[in-house]
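Posting here for the record, re: P-hydroxybenzoic acid.
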Amino acid sequence: MRTQVAIIGAGPSGLLLGQLLHQAGIANLVIELRSRAYVLERIRAGVLEEGTMRLLREAGAGQRMDLEGIADEGIVLAFDGERRRIDLPTYAEGQRVLVYGQTELTRDLMQVRDAAGLPTYYEVPDVAIHDATTDHPWLSFTLNGASVRLDCDYIAGCDGFRGISRQSIPPTARREYEKVYPFGWLGLLADTPPVSREIVYAAHERGFALCSMRSLARSRYYLEVPLNETVDNWPDQRFWDELRRRLPEPYASELVTGPALEKSIASLRSFVVEPMQYGRLFLVGDAAHIVPPTGAKGLNLAASDVHYLRSILAKVYHQGRHDLLASYSALALDRIWKAERFSWWMTSMLHRLASDNPFDARIQRAEFDYFTTTEEGRRAIARNYVGLPLRAID
Ligand code: FAS
Ligand code: PHB
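Prediction output follows.
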């Protein structure tokens, strides 16, 4: 078998890249470890930056997003019961965000890929990368019981944090930067009306809480929990009672509860690998970086990597600009590290279980007060939350 770009992973990174490469006339093939159903069952991100929305529309996968997505013009930050709203268009040059679940956008990307008849192989358990540092890289995997060799020009490692792509780069050829947070997020999905039309980030001495949604009839909530917690320790009623304790008014009184459709605990880490390429292998999305979800950046950073890699590969194939290949990592990492900073900062300011030192709590309160009551502070939050600009490739 042969293609121009071999894509490992059918999450948002792999599917969005595949669609945009196809539209640039670049042949590609996607190989996915899991089944379609498994990929779609994972409840993850919920907030899209305008840059991500533009890429999804360009990929032909934006119709349902534009119809069903919920535009958010503000976010609410609360600290021990005091609420402050940041108006995004006012402080971020007219920009806003859209709440639209990652599950839905992945479904949309799967549909446009199927409609284009592009080759996608699910439930492929043993893909391996070969000769990435030569001009003729290739993949091996098993398909329908037969061993397959896929020759290609380039490989996009879109296989997430636990994929094989990053691990296939020799340790001597990569540097990893990591911070693991001493708490996790217990998430709950319920068919209840969201307690707030805008996303609420609430810091409380009992721990952080977040109020989001998937639609005006489906809510998504999170609680900061110690790392040793398990979902079994959290029957629905305990979750709702704890959430209510951590929310400011009027949310605490107005909270509508109901049976959980899904409950899960996610660990929180900041992680970046440098460089994001090795020969003709390019790492994209969670394969290269992870952020704590407090800044709603994870999925959006995957989209910005796709923007840079697609732009470079289109110029390589259509203008012979092979010189650009070496610039992918630096271009992507500039925006990634700024999003890592913002996600780390939001997490450090709003999560209280990491430290029992009263000084730390006072510093968190001072951060909250400074950044939510000054023009420059609000501008800093809004501009980072809507997403820093994506650079054009000359
Ligand atoms: P993904 O992990 O989504 O996709 C990688 C794909 O590669 C998967 O389908 C996987 O099965 C496949 N794969 C793995 N190994 C493979 C192999 N060996 N061969 C072939 N395929 C392989 N981001 C936010 O912005 N907000 C959030 O609230 C948020 N919540 C999250 C909660 C959880 C529990 C997790 C894990 C992540 C969360 N994220 C959130 C981040 C998340 O949305 C990612 O940023 C996003 O999924 C990145 O997409 P991909 O890079 O495509 O990686
Ligand atoms: C979500 O809706 O899942 C969500 C929203 C904002 C975040 C993280 C997660 O910062």
